[in-house]
Hints:
Layout: H1 3-74, E1 78-84, H2 99-106, E2 111-117, E3 120-128, E4 135-142, H3 144-195, H4 210-282, H5 288-315, E5 323-326, H6 327-344, E6 348-353, E7 359-362, H7 364-381, E8 387-397, E9 407-415, H8 446-456, E10 460-466, E11 470-477
Amino acid sequence: MKLARKITLGLTATVLVVMALYAFYLSRHHVVLFEGDIEGAQTRGEAVRLMVQQIWREDGPARTREIVERVADLLEDVDVRWIDLAAKPGAAGYAALTPEERHELEAGRTLGLLRDADGDPRRVWYVPMEAGSPAVLEVTRDLKREVSFVRTSQTAIVATTLLVVLACGATALLLGYWLVGRPMERLRDRARRAGEGDFSGCLDLRQRDEMGELGAEIDEMCRRIAEANERVAAETEAKLAALERARHAERLASVGRFASGVAHELGTPLNVVSARAKMIASDLQESASARGHARVIGEQATRMTEMIRQLLDLSRRRSSRVGAGSLTQVARSVVDNLRPLAAARGVEVVLEATAGALVVRLDAGEMQQVLNNVVLNAIQASPSAGRVRIAVDEQRVDATPRGGGEGEWVRVVVEDHGDGIAAEDLPHVFEPFFTTKGPGEGTGLGLAIAEGIVEDAGGWIECASERGRGTRITIWLPPAAGAYAARAGSA
């Protein structure tokens, strides 16, 4: 059974009991008042009896009868007549009395009786004139008005009780549904949704009572659980990502160890192949065709040697010779070295550097390798008559990917306007052996090596690209201590 119905039934039963007790009390009160009236009338009748008996003794029966009849004419609800105890049944003045009642009257004692004539209650007094005399005064009072009043009062009480019970029941049912039933249904539905894992939305119970407080607490609980679930999901995702990175790093380490071994094994044969190819290419006795093939063999051997060197750099980085150096000078050197290659492909390389040396802590050779790899990728990705922009400047950042605070950083931006990188490939651009270039154009090691060098220097590297609009590589490096005072030797 619903809680609102239980409350309604309980309240209705309570009101019914209370009204029943009140009706009983009121009925008893009316009865007591009625009995009090009767006792008062009996007392007054006793006084009248003494007066009538006195008149009987002094003035005689005739005078007494005359006075009694005159008084009886004045009383509307009282009937008075004379009876004769010696009268036979059916004779005038006869009264149906029991022997005990006759004995009481013959002894001169007043007798009060309650008679019921055809459902009409009556109060009858018998007043003997004197002991031993058969003359008795019978006074009858009709009680219909009093009984009718009591019954009407009882009917009114019952009707009032029913109306009060119905009104209280309907009010309790309505308020129970509005204040208890409806909020409980919403609380139940909210609990079911929460049990199914849906913590969205809120109850927003606008009641300023216990139901409203309970609804607010449930909303707050769901909000906290939702936040906790989000934190758990984020932490779980981060842990899975870290685990995947660890596994990937372990795989790369295995590949690096294998590549290192292969590189050592292939290094000597490639040197021999390269040396023999150079000998054949320089031998004038060989035909021009043979010397051309020898040069091709030498070039490919050199390319394979370079690839092996990159594998060795990836798997076992050489010890860095870190010192303070001008990043602008390193960038200018890289641009000068790659400008002929860019010109051969019809690509313009532009260097933009702010005033000052922009001194950072770096290994000049490694940093030159980083910029060389990044700029070379930009040149290869640019179309003919394209443009590669290299910018070196200072920027203030609020926070770093490693959780550092705000500060000044030196930034290198390498931007091209090539085909760009697909969105699904962006997360993999710094992975070893991943490349978007065509066969024979790259090994997929350049950016991986660059990222490792930059991170060892205390910075980070970012890649942003959009299909058809080019790629932007940004390298962030921490400035050397006291480097801001040095601003000489600008671009």
